[in-house]
């Protein structure tokens, strides 16, 4: 018989899986269990390089949703919204109660808003009763022919009703803007004026009113709208050149605010006379004097569109409450959604400021008040914020007209008197919780 050579042991090659060693359990006979070592994978199967199926699955990287199939990464907005809503509800249970209770609260707030508008129309130097308001509304909306004095009909239909509707729309829109910015920036002190939109609107209005630039085509509201867009674009450009991030966005907003405030002061003191200065300064403090149905329609459409957008992106706002990394792991396109929501907040603020002037602290205070009523879930928080903001602004405007008649107090002054104490309280509360 020829000499049989003993087969040479196969040496481990770098880059190939090393076979697992099989160890015998004491007292279990032939029962063998695999012994794992760090960095090693499963045993060979059917030739070289064959790896156990379980090890092959472990070797594949997991996607952010925890799915092994790459095709399951993209989920629908409904499924993502359920995951985000469940996680947020477990982290902080909502105060809104059951769906039936939330529906009752929402309907009650809507009824309170309608009643507030009706009551605000009756307040003022001229005596107008609720019966007169009812008759005038029936004449214009239902085609009735109820006899009403012409002076009262002009006061209600041409002055007080558009003013109350603009106040409600501005309160809802500015409250939603503050809610969106606080959720995106994760800063309870953020409001629409962080982005410098108010100062840009003020500069645009002053340039149109004093210098006469674009008066034929735009007017003061148009100039304010253009100035808001320019200031917002400057904030985005500066923040992007500085490296991006929420902190850079806030710092860019502060810088742009100071720049446009200086421009406004320069134009007023260099080119304005006494009468123009008085009118512009009154508008800069926030005023609803002289608003008509075209302004009411513009503010109403903008507020309604903003509410619908926020409701459609409620699950995205819930995800941002946990931070950008968690939102990305839940399937949210962070950069795209952030850009869309910030742009929507800027445009909505520009529309409101162009009609009603610079009204501060509404976007800061109202989202916090709404959270105490509805909890953290944005699907409930968005409509409550809009309704609370609308009711708040209607009554602030009504009291500003009545308390300082015949010269009404600028509505921006009234909101600041309410907002400053709340702002200080939020700062101290945040200091205690840190």
TrEMBL record:
Topologically, how does it sit relative to the membrane?
A: Multi-pass membrane protein
Stretches with biased composition (Basic and acidic residues): 53-69
Where does the UniProt annotation locate this protein?
Cell membrane
Give the main localization category: membrane
Q: Which molecular function GO terms apply here?
A: transmembrane transporter activity
Q: Which InterPro entries does the annotation name?
A: ABC_BtuC-like, ABC_transptr_permease_BtuC
Can you name a GO cellular component term? plasma membrane
SUPFAM superfamilies on file: ABC transporter involved in vitamin B12 uptake, BtuC
According to the record, the segments passing through the membrane are: 102-123, 161-181, 193-218, 224-242, 249-271, 291-312, 339-365, 377-396, 408-428
Q: Which GO terms describe its biological process?
A: siderophore-iron import into cell
What ranges does the record list as Basic residues composition bias?
Answer: 1-26, 34-49, 70-83
Q: Where is this region: Disordered?
A: 1-84
Instruction: Give the record's keywords alphabetically.
Output: Cell membrane, Membrane, Transmembrane, Transmembrane helix, Transport
Does the keyword Transferase belong to this entry?
Answer: no
Domain of life here?
Answer: Bacteria
Family label? Belongs to the binding-protein-dependent transport system permease family. FecCD subfamily.
Query: What is the name of this protein?
Result: Iron chelate uptake ABC transporter family permease subunit
Q: Which organism is it from?
A: Glycomyces albidus
